[in-house]
Design goal:
Elements lengths: L1 H13 L21 E5 L19 H5 L7 E3 L24 E3 L2 E7 L4 E6 L4 E2 L9 E2 L2 H13 L11 E8 L2 E6 L6 H7 L8 H7 L12 E7 L3 E6 L6 E4 L2 E4 L5 E5 L4 H9 L5 E6 H10 L4 E6 L2 E7 L9 H10 L2 H8 L4 E2 L21 H4 L6 H10 L6 E8 L5 H12 L3 E8 L1 H9 L6 E7 L3 H9 L13 H12 L3 H18 L2 E3 L2 E8 L3 E2 L13 H5 L2 E2 L1 H6 L3
Helix pairs in contact: 8-11, 14-15, 14-16, 15-16
Length: 565
């Protein structure tokens, strides 16, 4: 794989200017141990979905990433606040020049036969867990067990591990992953992705779904969970990793406890931030920022374009959405420019899906798109009515759109329904609790319309998970054998430049077919108090995994006390 290194280098260069975070000064004060952090994660309205990795829940890393580690993680020393070039915001893309070994001490991608050889760190320990397991060292068999369990799970995402023929321990600390074909996401799929946690057999055999059994090699132990309210993590004194600050090495983690808060009501969460009950709030809507800057002027801020695409999927396997004219008509019937102006107060971009603007080399601005794509973003109810009539619906039709009670943007659906009503289309809005909402999609029983604000992950996964046949996160049920072949060719292509061209063409194809009502994507803010140190608004050190970031935060306890908190 001589060209693999060149491929990754090209990707790194392409990403060098990614993100909008402003450079932050390096931490100058000496780090402190102790204190407590209270954090509302990016998806603070959604409580943990499971504590069992084999359930293939997208939120698993966010909730357990302080406990369960992975082979790889982001090298946070290359964050912008440290003088680096990365903001570590994107939910599932670590730039290749910012990849570090976590449980992996070293790794090599080898040819003839094609395989990945990983050397694990020695002396990394699972702590003792009464009634579950004694303290013991992490070994290669744990990686093999974790992979096999995920691969055999009935909830596995189709095709996810199809490029892997075998994972085996060839030594106590050596793991070899044999590939049947090259896959451009080899490091993401089983290294630092959504489904890459290394879990001990003892936990899962004792009862992996019980939070009380959770036990990993990470910097913290999960010591309390109040369902739907909060998870509390306590410092693991035997943790192996360290952080170098101002040339001096410090053992991790810094804070004694970290609490993740789950708050369904946005105003309650904002009050908690304003009154110092939250130290960090990772996702603050633009509409709350001006008031917070007045009422809590000492808050620190980072602005970024949301990692979530925003859209209403339309089931292309059912009438009337099996007709592209109908789907295009609904896009033209929605005044997207007005949504940006009135709903988002100008704080949104028209096009940021299925590629994020941070996906440099893959992203094409709307101005560069074909005219057939551009017209989907221009309000044109006259042409929308004409297309509906041409498709056999001169008086319109009715359909149901499902959404989650955890969404903060359900009022946007009412505005969209009003636009559609002007062309004779009635959209019924059904609000479901998040577990039921998610289940509707994963079981493919979702309604004809399905409001989704899903992470774009990375350039290739964004297309695969959303538009490849039978994929879990494909509620439009888009299925095209030729598109699937193109996706397979992208993954098999080791040349980054060629992949970028292929992806751009596939994005154009998807937008033109309009399997969704594409909606504007807002800017979002992260806020934190000045006593939060060694932090600059970073959100991800792996796929939706903030744990390594939070383990490196230290609390200036005197500053916090003097501020009255």
């Amino acid at each position: 794989m001589a060209n693999v290194a060149a491929t990754l280098t090209t990707l790194a260069v392409a990403l060098a200017l990614a993100g909008a975070a402003q450079a932050q000064p390096k931490a100058s004060a000496k780090p402190q141990y102790g204190g407590a952090l209270s954090i509302a994660n990016a998806y603070y309205t959604i409580a943990p979905l499971t504590f069992d990795s084999a359930d293939w829940a997208w939120k698993f890393n966010q909730d357990t990433g302080l406990v369960y580690e992975q082979l790889f993680a982001a090298d946070l020393s290359k964050a912008r606040r440290n003088g680096g070039k990365h903001d570590f915001i994107t939910d599932g893309w670590i730039p290749p020049d910012a990849l570090r070994g976590e449980l992996a001490e070293s790794w090599k991608l080898l040819d003839n036969p094609l395989r990945l050889e990983v050397q694990l760190r020695k002396g990394v320990m699972f702590p003792a867990k009464p009634g579950v397991m004694p303290a013991r060292e992490l070994v290669a068999d744990d990686v093999v067990y974790s992979y096999d369990r995920m691969n055999k799970s009935p909830k596995k995402i189709p095709t996810y591990f199809d490029h892997i023929s075998k994972v085996e321990a060839t030594g106590k600390h050596t793991v070899v992953m044999s590939f049947s074909v090259y896959n451009a996401e080899w490091d993401y799929r089983w290294g630092w992705g959504y489904y890459s946690a290394i879990v001990p057999r003892e936990v899962m055999e004792t009862g992996g779904k019980d939070w009380k059994n959770v036990n990993g090699t990470g910097p913290y132990a999960l010591t309390n969970y109040v369902q739907g309210n909060a998870m509390t993590f306590t410092r693991n004194p035997a943790y192996w990793d360290s952080e170098t600050i101002a040339g001096e090495k410090y053992k991790l983690p810094f804070a004694d406890t970290i609490t993740y808060r789950y708050i369904k009501d946005e105003s309650t969460a904002l009050t908690a931030l304003r009154t110092g009950k939250l130290d960090i709030m990772e996702s603050v809507r633009w509409s709350a920022v001006d008031e917070l800057k007045k009422s809590a002027p000492k808050l620190q801020w980072h602005k970024f374009l949301s990692n979530n695409g925003s859209y209403i999927t339309l089931r292309v396997d059912q009438k009337p959405f099996d007709d592209v004219r109908v789907r295009r008509a609904l896009n033209m019937a929605v005044n997207k420019a007005e949504i940006i102006k009135t709903y988002y107060g100008g704080n949104a971009e028209m096009l940021n899906f299925p590629m994020h603007a941070n996906h440099l080399g893959y992203f094409e601005p709307l101005a560069d798109m074909p005219d057939s794509v551009k017209e989907l973003y221009v309000y044109n109810p006259v042409k929308a009515k004409a297309l509906l009539a041409e498709a056999g619906y001169p008086t319109g039709f009715s359909f149901k759109t499902q959404t989650s009670s955890a969404s903060l943007d359900n009022d946007l659906l009412a505005q969209i329904a009003a636009y559609l009503a002007k062309v004779g289309v009635k959209m019924e809005i059904q609000v479901l609790e998040y577990p039921g909402y998610l289940s509707a999609m994963t079981t493919k029983t979702n309604a004809a319309g399905y409001f989704l604000q899903a992470g774009l992950t990375n350039p290739t996964t964004s297309l695969r998970k959303t538009f490849v046949s039978k994929q879990t996160w494909n509620p439009s049920q888009h299925s095209d054998p030729e598109f699937d072949k193109k996706m397979a060719a992208v993954y098999a292509e080791p040349d980054e430049r060629v992949r970028q061209i292929k992806v751009k063409l596939m994005v154009r194809e998807i937008l033109d077919k309009a399997p969704h009502i594409f909606l504007p994507v807002p800017y979002v803010y992260t806020a934190w108090w000045p006593w939060v140190k060694n932090y600059g608004g970073e959100l991800r050190a792996g796929a939706d995994r903030p744990g390594p970031i939070h383990a490196r935060v230290w609390v200036d306890q005197e500053l916090k006390k003097n501020a009255g908190f």
